[in-house]
């Protein structure tokens, strides 16, 4: 049965999956939602016999109904191949009575790889379907990690090119190196003489610039967005929750229909929303526990029904969760008011005007599958150390937040339901914080030097993504000022036209 998409703000209906993937954001500023959440067509028994790629097909075919079987299988096989360092793609580690779902075995050793390795293929197939002749141009501003994950995903995918702006003084040396060594003839990265806000504002302006769009068009290009509100990122994230649950069932860790709780270290609310979708599709999930760091907007929201971003922004040791506006929450709001687009738009308007809104009691009731907690930096470090001392397993600072929140949850509620913790990055991505947490202090502040130390401590071999930093040569040298961003894009692409 065909599944169509609609904007959460009411301006668009009857949009096909491939149109939604290609556009990313609706013209009215809303997010695309499937008009219903489909049920999984297969049982847990059947899923237990499937590998990651087969599971991905079963989940994604329910949502991407205008993609043919061949097209979907092509996207899946291109995305989930040897670039992951384990055949399982998303393995579960049973540690101290919980299951860590390791989402960091892709190219950039963090969970964004799970979706960004397939999005480029979903987009190019969509472009073909929509008879788009132009090459797809992805423009992104990054504060560090997403830019690299997007470049790695799009590298050498025919029919695409990607250009990433990053603030030269606003990313760590490791993050910068990761981007500067990125291979692929279609990848470009520009160091911006400004901060992340300058980069983001500049990119947003380019997306709204009609003249710019026409100029690109005449050069044979069209802009598209790879950010986390694209349904082409959300849907692939449902897969690993279905896969994890099937593994638990297969290994006899859970019985048929036994509930499983899920804890997710949350920033933009994309990852935990995917868990919610998995539950709606029929996966026996119980509580979805939303874990925040010191920027605990979501914790306050689930506790009070009031979303308020008017507060100090705190830079923490779990930077990918340092977010005050969680864009994917709009999708849950939309569902919680019975798909009332007027209501959703009104709340979003309040958010952009005053930074604050309050939901109704019935919307709060609708969200009862979710609960929330937060851990500050000190609690996070203590938890990383505690897990390591008890079990020898080392987690990154994002997963540390989730584990600390889970520990509190279990103590408070006495809920001993089996639990999956989404493990969103390798500890090697944050060597300083992790070494500091387990060793008490660090003698060396050079992150590269700490990598060897981390290997000694953990006994886990240094992943390729880290080793290549000192082995590969720097390929990108472009820099520009904020007012030069448009010219930089144009000249980069006019020179490189094949
Ligand atoms: C992006 C990210 C998160 C937050 O995920 P959301 O889907 O934005 O909630 C958590 N941990 C890591 C390591 C990330 O990169």
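Q: What amino acid sequence fits the structure above?
A:
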């Amino acid at each position: 049965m065909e599944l169509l998409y609609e904007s959460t703000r009411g301006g668009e209906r009857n949009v096909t999956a491939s149109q939604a993937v290609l556009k990313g954001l609706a013209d009215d500023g809303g997010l695309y939602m499937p008009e219903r959440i489909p049920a999984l067509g297969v049982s847990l028994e059947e899923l237990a016999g499937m590998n990651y790629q087969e599971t991905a097909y079963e989940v994604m075919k329910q949502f991407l109904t205008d993609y043919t079987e061949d097209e979907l299988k092509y996207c899946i096989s291109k995305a989930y191949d040897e670039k992951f360092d384990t055949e399982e793609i998303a393995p579960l580690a049973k540690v101290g009575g919980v299951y860590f779902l390791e989402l960091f075995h892709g190219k950039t050793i963090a969970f964004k790889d799970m979706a960004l390795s397939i999005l480029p293929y979903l987009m190019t197939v969509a472009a073909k379907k929509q008879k788009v002749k132009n090459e797809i141009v992805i423009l992104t501003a990054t504060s560090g990690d997403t830019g690299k994950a997007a470049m790695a995903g799009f590298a050498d995918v025919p029919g695409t090119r990607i250009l990433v702006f990053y603030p030269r003084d606003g990313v760590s040396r490791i993050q910068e190196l990761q981007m500067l060594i990125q291979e692929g003839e279609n990848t470009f990265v520009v160091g911006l003489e400004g901060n992340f806000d300058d980069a983001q504002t500049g990119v947003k302006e380019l997306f709204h610039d009609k003249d710019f769009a026409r100029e690109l068009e005449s050069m044979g290009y069209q802009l598209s967005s790879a950010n986390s509100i694209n349904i082409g990122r959300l849907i692939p994230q449902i897969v690993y929750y279905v896969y994890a649950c099937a593994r638990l069932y297969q290994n006899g860790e859970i019985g048929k229909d036994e509930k499983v709780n899920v804890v997710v270290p949350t920033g933009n609310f994309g990852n935990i929303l995917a868990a919610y979708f998995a539950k709606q599709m029929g996966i026996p999930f119980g509580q979805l526990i939303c874990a925040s760091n010191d920027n605990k907007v979501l914790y306050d929201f689930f506790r009070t029904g009031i979303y308020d971003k008017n507060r100090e922004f705190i830079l923490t040791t779990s930077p990918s969760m340092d977010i005050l506006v969680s864009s994917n929450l709009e999708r849950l709001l939309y569902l919680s008011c019975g798909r009332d687009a007027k209501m959703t738009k009104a709340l979003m308007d309040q958010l952009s005007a005053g930074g604050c809104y309050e939901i109704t009691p019935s919307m709060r009731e609708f969200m009862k599958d979710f609960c929330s907690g937060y851990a500050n930096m000190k609690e996070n470090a203590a938890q990383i150390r505690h897990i390591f001392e008890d079990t020898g397993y080392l987690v990154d600072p994002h997963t540390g937040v989730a584990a600390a929140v889970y520990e509190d949850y279990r103590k408070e509620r006495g809920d001993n339901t089996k639990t999956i913790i989404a493990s969103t990055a390798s500890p090697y991505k944050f060597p300083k914080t992790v070494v500091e947490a387990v060793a008490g202090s660090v003698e060396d502040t050079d992150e590269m030097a700490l990598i060897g130390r981390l290997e000694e401590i953990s006994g886990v071999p240094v992943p390729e993504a880290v080793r290549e930093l000192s082995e590969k040569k720097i390929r990108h040298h472009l820099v520009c000022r904020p007012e030069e961003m448009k010219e930089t894009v144009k000249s980069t692409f006019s020179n490189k036209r094949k």
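Q: And what stands out in the fold?
A: The mean pLDDT is 94.
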